[in-house]
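Collaborator request, handled under Task 6.
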Amino acid sequence: MKRLKHILIKYPPAFLLLVSVLSLFSCHAFTEDCHYMGGVAVRMDWSDLGPVPRPDSLVALFFHPGYGPEIRTLRGDTVYDSITAGETTMLLLNVPPGLELHTGDSPGESTLTLPTRFEGSLRVSDGCPPVCVWRDGFMVPVEDIIHRTAVPRPLTKLIILKAYIVREGVTADVDTCLASLSGISTVYNLGTGEASQNDATVRIRLRQAAQEEEHTDTFTGSFHVPGVKGENPNRFSVYLVLEDGETRRAELDLTRELSTFTEDIFTASIRITITALGMDISVGSWSQGSSGEIIIQ
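Structure tokens returned to the collaborator:
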């Protein structure tokens, strides 16, 4: 203590200089919470977007070990110059209206959720707006900028349904074609990249399209979903209303076909035959792929 007092009295300018230098090395480029800061320059590459429309803006999440994310907005090539330095996981995604983003302290504790409603005993969804996501891990340097190229890919999967309806001994045309698919996931984990809780059902109206086969009516429809795999089966149901008021209903299990759905787009061709006694339904063919590259099954 006497030694310190001696230094203060004999060398006051030197002591002040020492304090300034220590402050420079310990607190320069710090936030108020004493976190080192750095920068991240993001260049966007939209070439892998596939069937998802390019969004106007993205949410940028910067996760650091031990505490929740820093949240920014991205509308194109951007430089973020006030990001906490050190180990970082960056997530980019768009959050369309109707979806809910829940962030935790890590990507694995963060989810994107598709709200549903109950109709009777069914948990029903109208489909999911298209979403894309990009995830990367890196070290943010202190007082420097790291450059990253972000290549967002579709998070949601596009399902295309084509119903080919043949009338045998039935003269009335098909007026309305309603369809539903069960086993739809409603939660997407931003850390694992996996969809879960596949207990929802999507209901859609298939629209009449140009006739592709003679004596066959063609109806088509499509929708996006976070995923289709899980404990619950994928049941396709179709409800037809003929012009004379008669109705027909049938169900088809697509669990086996959708169990191998790993790409961005799934297309199923459903064969429906209407007779005077009822209606038969089967899978004609199905395919999967992404951005023009289709795998025929």
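The cover message to the collaborator said: "DSSP finds three helices and 23 strands in the chain. Residues 15 and 21 are 10 Å apart (CA to CA). Please let us know whether this matches your experimental observations."
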